[in-house]
């Protein structure tokens, strides 16, 4: 129950621990890391899209608009809705919010 898994962000090389059963986004936020923009935290807005380069995970419900089946097959997922089963290597490619949406979502800075 106290198992931790390692998540590494490929571009920055930064790693963080994620509790078993915890979403990648929540683990990032709890450790004060800021890799991806944060929106609804519920799989509907698509702001926290990442690509899983290696490792196994389970998925919660995600908007098919933001993660269609072909994107999911390529490892593109929402960080708020994936739960690591093994250590993961992810790639964060934050999307730029559309004009007029800047005040509707909290945007975070890249990891240091």
UniProtKB/TrEMBL annotation:
Pfam families per the UniProt record, alphabetical: Fer2
Domain of life: Bacteria
Start and end residues of each 2Fe-2S ferredoxin-type domain: 3-96
InterPro entries, sorted: 2Fe-2S_ferredoxin-like_sf, 2Fe-2S_ferredoxin-type, Beta-grasp_dom_sf
Listed name of the protein: 2Fe-2S iron-sulfur cluster binding domain-containing protein
The organism of origin for this protein: Marinobacter xiaoshiensis
């Amino acid at each position: 129950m106290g198992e931790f898994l390692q998540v590494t962000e490929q571009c920055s090389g930064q790693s963080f621990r994620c509790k078993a059963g915890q979403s990648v986004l929540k683990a990032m936020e709890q450790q004060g890391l800021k890799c991806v923009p944060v929106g609804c935290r519920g799989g509907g807005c698509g702001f926290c899209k990442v690509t899983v380069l290696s490792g196994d995970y389970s998925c919660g419900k995600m908007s098919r608009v933001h993660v269609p089946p072909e994107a999911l097959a390529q490892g593109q997922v929402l960080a708020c809705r994936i739960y690591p089963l093994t250590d993961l290597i992810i790639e964060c490619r934050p999307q730029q919010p559309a004009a007029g949406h800047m005040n509707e979502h909290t945007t975070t800075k890249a990891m240091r």
